[in-house]
Structures are given as C-alpha cells and as structure tokens.
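hiii so um. not sure if this is the right channel but i have a protein structure encoded as tokens and i wanna go backwards to a sequence. like what aa goes where. can anyone help
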C-alpha cells in the first residue's frame, strides 16, 4: 500500500468514526470501515460462532421468538384477567367477553384476540416483588433482578449467542426503538446487542444504515473491503484486528445480500395484509417481525409504550392501546398459523408488571404499579393454545394458585427453544451464572 492510499484511508477513518482514535477503533470495533453505522451488527462475533448443538426438539425445529413488549406495565384486570364479579372499584368499566375457548374471558376491548384464543395461552399468576420500572424491566427481559456489579444479558442476546446468525441477517432485532435496562447483552458484551431497525410504519421506511450511504457504490464498498483486507494482512499479528474480521464479513454480507434487503422490505406485502395488521407502528412492526423470522432472524422485540397509566387509564386503553395491540397481535398469530410458522415461532406478550386492582383516586383515575400479580400471553414454539396457567384471587391482588415466577418464565422460554435453562455462562470476572437462575419450566404450557 503506498503513502497516498494510507493517507486516504486514515482520512476516511477519521470522518467515519466521528472523533474516535484509531487505537480506540481497533480496540473496541465501534465504527465500521465499510462506511456504515452498523455498530451493533459489526460486533456480532459471538453470534457468528457455531451454534450450540441442540438436544431438544425445540432447537431441532429452529424456533424464533417475537417478544411483544408492553413498556410501562399493562393492567392485568383490563386485559387478560378480568374480574366481572368484583366491585366496580376493581373491575372498572370494561366488561368481560367470552373467547373461542370455553371458560376463558378477556377484556371486551380485545375482541380479535378472543376469536383466536385457541392459538395462545395465558399465565395469570406471574408474580414478583419489584415495582420500579427500570428494575422490573431488566428482570422480565433477562430473568434476573439487576445488581450494581453486573448487567445480565437479555433473552434476545442469549438466543443470538446460542443459535447464531442465519441467512446473513442479524440474529437479534428490535423495532420501535427499544431502550433501557434489560434489552442489551449485559456481561456478554456489546457484540450481542440488538440491531435497531426503526419504525416500519414510517412513510418511506428504510432500515437505518442498511442501504449504502450516499456516494458509496458497490464498487467503492468492494475497494474499501479490499483495502481493509490489506491492512489486516499487515497487522495479522494483532489479535484485536484479527478478531474483527468476522464482524466486517458479516456486515458486508448484510448490505450486499438480496435476501437481507428483501427481509426488511415491508413494502412487498399486500396492502390487504398490511391493513389486517393495522396501519400503526405496532401493527406494521408485527408484520415486519413475521417477515424477519421467516427470513432467519432469531429474536425480534417490538416495544409498545404508553402502559404507565396512573391517570386516564380507561380512555387510553379503550381508545388507543387495546385496539392497537388487539389488532396487531391477533393478525400476527393468524398470519403465522396460516403460513405454518406458528409452531416454529414463539410469541410472548409481556410488560414489567401489572397494575393495582384498586383504581386510584386521581382526578382522571388510573391504576398504579403492581408487581404482585400480572398476566402474560404466550403462543407458538410448541406452546399449546387455549390454556390458562394459574389464577389470581377474586380481587386480582395476587396468585390464588400456581404462583409463577419470572425465573420460571425464563426457563420456559429457553426450554421451548431447545436451550438448556441450567446452562452456565462465565462472566468476564469469572463468575458462573445460570441462564434461568433455578427457574422451573412451566410444563402445563407444552
């Protein structure tokens, strides 16, 4: 490589990496030599390693996960655990309606889900003791309560590590800007953080950083890749440089693969199907999630916020939140089933906690944080539909029978995927950590 080429390359690195030194760039790999902002994707070394050998039928069926994350904590009473015989101060103004499965009732504002109750099951007795949003979110997303000395990895990061990449697609994707505690890779390192894919309901939706930047053609990309290869040859004894080879190769495959471009192109879907999901950020995210798992993505998280309803609980749920998640979730389950994908796609609907059964005294009444009882809906991936596990008491204050803990939910998720819940990782400090923290698989669901 001559002096002119080296100077040009150095200038390119300086502009692309937004102030990072070359030493920092080589050390942590936080900026791409390809001219892309694929920070998380470039760091997928661990995910690109050979997947763990599966032992269960779950892994043999190559199951993916779609997590529908209800940020803020949805009321269990107003969704999946109505209490029609409780006082008005608890049951609220919503009626309970029958579903396709005898004996199971849902909120009147979930009519589409009621019609597909045979496709999903409900855990009504999930309970834990932390009513703080950030801590509870971390708990429900990882199976571990947070501690000051360690950040535990999310389910999505663990699945990415265990199952690896497929079809040149990132194994762990988030939609609608999932942020905060619990979504990341924790002690597994930034290499397994999610790939953020934005809001597919935007008018001219494009995945952030997936298209080549303006002025960067395929030929220019190939020249940069060749230049990088030359530098790698010169620095072959540098372990940090060698360790990043896989990152760049995977990024190159992503931006040049017709399969990966097609997977994110929601515009290819028929307008009638898009309407069925609902022309909302959540509805279109559910549709894109189906496209992504169909193409090879292992884990997709969709975040629907707005559930922290200390005030205006009932108008917010009736006019916005419940119709949106009812339409999108029911369409997702129906679409997956019709395509023969439900058995290989686990769909989990959850938030960080429930809300107080007793309606508060605010001027515009709402419900407050309530981790003692909450509901979770789960479908596909070997989970049988039309089942209710656990029961809350007559006032929905806490489990009446079959208390389910967060660790049990984690064990059940991993079990469905063919990942041993008792498997241990070793943290960078040498501490062994079990994936499901002694949780027990909820066998009634299978």
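sure thing!! here u go:
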């Amino acid at each position: 490589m001559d002096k002119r080429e080296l100077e040009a390359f150095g200038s390119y690195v300086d502009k692309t990496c937004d102030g990072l030194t070359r030493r920092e760039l080589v050390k942590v790999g936080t900026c791409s030599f390809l001219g892309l902002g694929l920070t998380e994707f470039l760091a997928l070394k661990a995910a690109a390693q050979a997947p763990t050998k599966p032992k269960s039928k779950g892994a043999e069926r190559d199951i993916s996960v779609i997590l529908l994350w209800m940020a803020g904590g949805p009321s269990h009473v107003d969704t999946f655990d109505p209490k029609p015989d409780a006082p008005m101060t608890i049951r609220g103004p919503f009626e309970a309606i029958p579903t396709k499965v005898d004996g199971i009732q849902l909120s009147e504002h979930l009519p589409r889900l009621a019609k597909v109750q045979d496709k999903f099951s409900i855990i009504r007795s999930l309970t834990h003791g932390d009513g703080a949003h950030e801590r509870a979110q971390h708990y429900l997303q990882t199976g571990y309560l947070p501690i000051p000395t360690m950040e535990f990895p999310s389910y999505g990061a663990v699945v990415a590590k265990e199952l690896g990449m497929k079809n040149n697609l990132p194994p762990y994707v988030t939609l609608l800007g999932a942020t905060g505690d619990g979504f990341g890779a924790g002690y597994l390192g930034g290499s397994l953080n999610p790939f953020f894919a934005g809001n597919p309901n935007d008018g001219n939706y494009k995945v952030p950083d997936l298209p080549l930047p303006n002025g960067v053609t395929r030929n220019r990309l190939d020249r940069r890749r060749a230049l990088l290869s030359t530098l790698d040859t010169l620095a072959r004894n540098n372990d940090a440089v060698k360790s990043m080879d896989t990152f760049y190769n995977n990024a190159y495959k992503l931006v040049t693969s017709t399969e990966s471009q097609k997977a994110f192109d929601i515009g290819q879907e028929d307008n009638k199907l898009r309407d069925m999901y609902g022309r909302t950020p959540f509805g279109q995210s559910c549709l894109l999630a189906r496209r992504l798992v169909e193409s090879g993505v292992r884990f997709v998280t969709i975040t629907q916020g707005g559930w922290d309803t200390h005030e205006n609980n009932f108008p917010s749920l009736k006019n916005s939140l419940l119709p949106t998640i009812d339409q999108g979730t029911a369409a997702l389950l129906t679409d997956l089933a019709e395509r023969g994908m439900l058995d290989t796609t686990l769909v989990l609907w959850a938030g960080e906690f429930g809300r107080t059964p007793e309606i508060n005294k605010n001027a515009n009444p709402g419900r407050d944080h309530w981790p003692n009882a909450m509901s979770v809906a789960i479908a596909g991936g070997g989970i049988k539909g039309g089942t209710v596990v656990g029961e809350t008491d007559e006032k929905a204050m806490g489990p009446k029978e079959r208390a389910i803990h967060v660790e049990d939910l984690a064990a059940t998720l991993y079990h469905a995927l063919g990942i041993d819940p008792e498997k241990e990782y070793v943290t960078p400090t040498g501490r062994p950590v079990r994936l499901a923290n002694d949780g027990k698989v909820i066998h009634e669901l299978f």
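oh and Residues 51-207+272-445 form a domain with the Alkaline Phosphatase, subunit A fold (CATH 3.40.720.10).
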